[in-house]
Design goal:
The complex is a heterodimer of chains A (52) and B (786). Chain A has 52 residues and is mainly α. Chain A is 63% helix and 0% strand. Chain A has two helices and no strands. Chain B has 786 residues and is of the alpha+beta class. Chain B has five domains: 96 residues, Distorted Sandwich (Calcium-transporting ATPase, cytoplasmic transduction domain A), CATH 2.70.150; 77 residues, Alpha-Beta Plaits (2-Layer Sandwich); 253 residues, no CATH class; 147 residues, 3-Layer(aba) Sandwich (Rossmann fold); 112 residues, 3-Layer(aba) Sandwich (Calcium-transporting ATPase, cytoplasmic domain N). Chain B has 27 helices and 27 strands. In chain B, the strands form five sheets. In chain B, strands 15-27-26-25-16-23-24 form a seven-stranded mixed β-sheet, with helices on both faces. Chain B has a six-stranded antiparallel β-sheet with strand order 7-6-8-14-9-12, covered by helices on one side. In chain B, helix 20 links the parallel strand 23 and strand 24. The longest helix of chain B is centred in the last third of the chain and has 36 residues. Chain B is elongated. Classes of the chains: A mainly alpha (52), B alpha+beta (786). Chains A and B meet through helix 1 and helix 2 of A and helix 2, strand 3, helix 4 and helix 5 of B.
Chain lengths: 52, 786
């Protein structure tokens, strides 16, 4: 019983973390341009495309 | 009319300054402010394909000092630029994109609803994520309960489940609750009513049971149900979104305003809505005529393909009437406005289309038709189970309600909710790989039913691009030197004939031609070592030649000559679209009636109809005639598929049971059509019909499977044998069966069909090739072949 008291919050917490991470990435437009992201890794230039 | 001063209007340097303001106004009108002095402008760049394009766009624009942020989006083929107002101007950005070598148009942020769509998709996705999180965790807890936890643990687990489930259901279930509420308000029943009822009742009962310390709770059923249904809902939304973004990509800058000529011949830019009859509007080469009017100054060739469907340009001069939407090709013209924008040709067509579309809005999708029978049946059954158990147990309402709710849960149309969207998404994917874009899932259902096809001629059965050949009589005169000169001249003009000639003359190197200029309504002329040379209308070219009448081909309208020499005549013809013969033959064997309905004259239509062996054809049809013909067929009980491309076809496309348009169709035709095919081959039509028929079969199979499952499960539920465990298993099993069955649409490659229609050549699927197709068709449209 004691182990449950620890494990259930841990399990729920991890799941919640995943959910929050997903919602965060969605809200930050991480999924807006999947094709572009796939292509951009081929770009050698490390600097950002524009400053600021 | 006080017209006919100078034959042409100067388009010299003075104009470009003014043009800047017109352009700027138009560009600014479609941008929006995002902060103090910050403006966001989006540009559609259809030719963006790879990382190199992204780099060059972002670099070139990013170099501008007043630009604060630039981001290219490859999926949407869009570039967003955020810039400081005051320190720079939008024309600079526009130029920078051109400088980077990309065709583009501005993306109208002010009117487009894409943001709203993306928003709703994101909301669904978040709801899906929340439901998924809740479903997984509750299922974990439920499994330990089912495998025999002691009473204390069960109580605790139910409590935790409840804490997760209640907010999750209220958050994720909103799309269903809203839709159900809307349906009930309208005194209708849709699938969302039994769904919402089952979920809410299951949740309510479980909360009650856990409070009362019972051993049975349906938290997992309620949440899993939502999870599955949200998947279906999201897929449905995704498909519509994909199609929409493809269409948005193709949309080109429509006329939003015009340059008016004041009394002191100054030019002012005004918005389209503010143009009133009596004003004088200047239309530059390459622009579309904004409103109906009469030409009072200048002369030019115009592309009237939007109006008549005919791609061969006409010459207009003083006194000619021009309709809104036609494209001015070669010279600047001034027109005296006769009708304002709303009453112009474009406005009339739009109104006709809206009326026609409302008629089609009455179509009920198969899922809704199912719901009309299914939902009342389920509710009645649950009520009967309740009454039956009340009588049987002599008034034990606790047991009776329990049974009634388990009937609702077990019959909840989970599989039914997935039956249609999964099939449609897979079907849309298959079509997409063949370069066909579908705008709405119900298009499949309507396409499946058709038994009559109406084809437009120009641009649909024919490619719409004029084919040019040297006339047999003057073939001997056309040597390599002449070809090189003709090609150089042709390249100078954007007239469709010039383009065809430039394409026809292969291999020649360019020649040293000086002083090349385009003469509106006549052709192109230049000088070769001092001698005049002309390419264009036969009579105009003949002015500089010394022709032997025997060499003159009376049928030819185009010719080329050097001063003092003989004219080289060209013959023009229409090219029939690839695979038209096979397509027509194949459609005929499937028992579908075919006819041609064209705005073109008697002879060209008859010619094409004969070549394609189509016996029913109607010529010289106006948009209203086309609608009348479709309505007549409707009254005879025919389900009509309309295939057309021109603006003049748009009302008919909207009025027909279902419609398909090629990608080089006019914007409005593409908007009106249910399907858009991006490849040249007409075999897209039978291919789409074939896929629609197969997906229709699969949808019906799915419904049968789902109902079969219900038929088995309902007796158990009514008898009171359903436990949460059984409900969970049964529900997942039926959903998996339905999804697996839908996947069969992918498995069967339909080989037979492909070889018949010659689709094998275009089978190099992948989204890349579709992207290329899309950008190709955009350049096509840019080339005025619309």
């Amino acid at each position: 019983m004691n182990s449950l008291l620890l494990l259930i919050p841990v399990a729920l917490g991890l799941g919640l973390l995943g959910l929050v991470a997903f919602v965060w990435s969605l809200k930050n437009n991480q999924y807006d341009d999947l094709d572009g992201a796939a292509q951009r890794i081929l770009d050698d230039d490390d600097g950002p495309a524009t400053d600021s | 009319m006080s017209c006919c001063g100078a034959p042409t209007i100067e388009t010299g340097s003075g104009y470009s300054v003014v043009s800047g303001t017109a352009e700027e106004n138009e560009l600014l009108a479609s941008s929006h402010k995002i902060g103090e002095n910050l403006i966001q402008s989006d540009f559609v760049v259809p030719d963006m394909h790879c990382v190199a394009c992204i780099r060059s766009l972002e670099k070139t624009i990013g170099k501008l000092p007043f630009v604060s942020r630039v981001r290219a989006n490859l999926s949407l083929k869009k570039v967003s630029v955020v810039w400081h107002q005051g320190s720079g101007n939008i024309i600079g950005i526009d130029r920078a994109i051109s400088e980077a070598g990309f065709d583009h148009s501005v993306f109208d942020l002010s009117t487009d609803s894409e943001d709203a769509n993306a928003n709703s998709a994101n909301k669904l996705l978040i709801a899906l994520a929340v439901a998924g999180f809740a479903a997984v965790n509750i299922m974990l807890l439920s499994i330990s309960v089912w495998s025999g936890a002691d009473l204390e643990t069960t109580k605790l687990f139910h409590l935790i489940s409840g804490i997760i489930a209640v907010p999750a259901v209220f958050f994720s279930g909103q799309p269903f609750f809203r839709s159900a509420l809307a349906a009930l308000r309208g005194r209708r029943l849709n699938m969302d009513v039994p769904i919402s009822l089952a979920v809410l009742l299951a949740l309510g009962m479980s909360v009650y049971e856990s409070m009362a310390g019972g051993r049975q709770a349906y938290f997992d059923a309620a949440v899993t149900l939502l999870f599955f249904l949200l998947i279906g809902r999201y897929l449905d939304n995704l498909m519509r979104d994909k199609a929409r973004s493809a269409v948005v990509q193709l949309s080109r800058l429509a006329v939003k305003g015009a340059m008016t000529v004041g009394e002191d011949s100054s030019l002012t830019y005004i918005e389209l809505d503010e143009i009133v009859p009596g004003m004088i509007v200047r239309v530059m080469p390459g622009d579309r005529v904004p409103v109906d009017g009469e030409v009072i100054k200048g002369q030019s060739d115009v592309d009237r393909s939007l109006v008549s469907g005919e791609s061969v340009p006409l010459m207009v001069k003083c006194g000619h009437f021009v309709e809104a939407g036609i494209l001015n090709l070669t010279g600047a013209i001034d027109i005296c406005v006769q009708r304002d924008a709303r009453h112009s040709f474009l406005g009339e067509v739009t109104r006709m289309m809206e009326a026609a579309e409302q008629g089609r809005g009455n179509y009920t999708r198969i899922a809704d038709r199912m719901a009309r029978i299914y939902a009342p049946a389920v509710h009645l059954l649950a009520a009967l189970a309740f009454v039956g158990w009340m009588l049987y147990t002599k008034g034990d309402w606790h047991v009776s309600i329990y049974v009634a709710i388990s009937v609702l849960i077990i019959t909840c149309p989970c599989a039914l909710g997935l039956a249609v969207p999964v099939v449609h998404v897979i079907a849309a994917r298959r079509l997409f790989k063949q370069g066909i874009i579908i705008r709405d899932g119900s298009g499949f259902e309507r396409l499946e039913e058709i038994d009559y096809i109406i084809f437009d001629k120009t641009g649909t059965l024919t490619s719409g691009i004029p084919q040019v050949e040297v006339s047999a009589r003057s073939a001997g005169l056309f040597d390599d030197n002449a070809a090189a000169i003709a090609k150089t001249l042709a390249k100078h003009s954007s007239h469709p004939f010039s383009k065809s000639i430039a394409e026809f003359i292969k291999g020649s190197t360019s020649s040293d031609v000086t002083e090349i200029r385009e003469v509106p309504g006549a052709g192109v002329e230049g000088r070769v070592s001092g001698n005049l040379t002309r390419l264009g209308r036969r009579q105009w070219v003949a002015q500089i030649t010394d022709d032997n009448p025997r060499n003159v081909d009376p049928n030819s309208a185009l010719s080329f000559a050097l001063e003092g020499g003989n004219s080289v005549m060209f013959e023009t013809s229409e090219e029939i679209r690839k695979d038209s013969f096979e397509t027509i033959a194949e459609l005929k064997t499937t028992g579908i009636d075919i006819e041609i309905l064209s705005g073109d004259g008697m002879n060209p239509v008859k010619n094409i109809a004969d070549r394609l062996t189509v016996s029913d054809f109607y010529h010289s049809q106006t948009p209203a005639d086309k609608i009348a013909r479709i309505n007549q067929l409707k009254q005879q009980g025919k389900k009509v598929l309309m295939a057309g491309d021109g603006l003049n076809d748009s009302p008919a496309l909207a009025a027909a049971h279902v419609s398909i348009a090629p990608a080089n169709a006019s914007d409005i035709a593409r908007q009106a059509a249910d399907f858009v095919f991006t490849r040249q081959s007409l075999s897209a039509v039978p291919f789409a019909i074939n896929i629609a028929k197969r997906s229709g079969n699969l949808v019906r199979q799915n419904f049968t499977l789902a109902i079969l499952y219900n038929a088995i499960a309902i007796p158990f539920a009514v008898a009171g044998y359903i436990t949460p465990l059984i409900a969970a298993i049964a529900m997942s099993a039926s959903s998996i069966v339905v999804v697996t069955n839908s996947m069969r649409l992918n498995l069967d490659p339909g080989n037979q069909k492909k070889s018949k229609t010659g689709l094998s050549s275009g089978d190099d699927d992948s989204l890349v090739s579709v992207a290329t197709d899309i950008s190709n068709m955009d350049t096509n449209t840019k080339g005025h072949w619309a």
